[in-house]
């Protein structure tokens, strides 16, 4: 689907498979103010949480968590700074080159 901006909207799925793992994706309000993160991933709970108040930064924060999970599954040994660098580069590639915009309309809030 192409929006007014010419961007192709791709829905963020509620479930993501990376390596041998299945993760749920959900919005958690006040994650930033309560935990200090705009997004987080938890392997034990198989959960990716994103603070919906992140505005324009939520895509990059989400991709950052995806890179962490790729790192975990494929043992890349990335540190935090390199995780952010790769996430930002990937976001740039998706937005500027593939014209892909993430659509969060299927992602639900705090109730698991
Ligand atoms: Zn991180």
Low-confidence stretches: none
Strand content: 15-25%
Sheet with the most strands? Answer: 4 strands, mixed
List the domain count as a whole number: 1
Question: Helices and strands: which structural class?
Answer: alpha/beta
Helix content: 25-40%
Beta strands, count: 6
Please report the number of helical segments. 3
Report mean pLDDT, rounded to a whole number.
91
Bound heterogens, unique: zinc ion
Strand order of the largest sheet: 2-3-5-4
| Cα shape | globular
The rounded Rg comes to 14 Å
What gap, in angstroms, lies between the N and C termini?
Answer: 29 Å
Write the H/E string, N to C. EEEHEEHHE
Describe the structure in your own words:
It contains three helices and six strands. It is an alpha/beta fold and 112 residues long. It has one domain (8-100). It has a four-stranded mixed sheet with strand order 2-3-5-4, with helices on one face. The protein has a two-stranded parallel sheet with strand order 1-6. The longest helix is centred in the last third of the chain and has 18 residues, at 80-97. The radius of gyration is 14 Å and the shape is globular. The N and C termini lie far apart (29 Å). Zinc ion binds at residues 64, 68, 80, 83.
Write the layout of secondary structure elements.
Blueprint (H helix, E strand, L loop, with lengths): L7 E4 L3 E4 L2 E7 L3 H5 L3 E4 L4 E4 L7 H17 L5 H18 L2 E4 L9
Parallel strand pairs: 1-6, 3-5
Antiparallel strand pairs: 2-3, 4-5
Helix pairs in contact: 2-3
């Amino acid at each position: 689907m192409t929006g007014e901006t010419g961007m192709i909207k791709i829905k963020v799925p509620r479930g993501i498979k990376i390596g041998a793992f299945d993760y749920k994706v959900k919005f958690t309000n006040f994650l930033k103010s309560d935990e200090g993160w705009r997004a987080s991933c938890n392997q034990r709970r198989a959960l990716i949480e994103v603070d919906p108040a992140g505005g324009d930064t939520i895509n990059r924060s989400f991709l950052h968590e995806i890179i962490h999970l790729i790192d975990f599954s494929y043992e890349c040994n990335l540190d935090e700074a390199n995780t952010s660098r790769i996430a930002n580069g990937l976001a740039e590639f998706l937005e500027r080159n593939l014209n892909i915009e993430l659509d969060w309309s299927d992602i639900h809030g705090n109730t698991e």
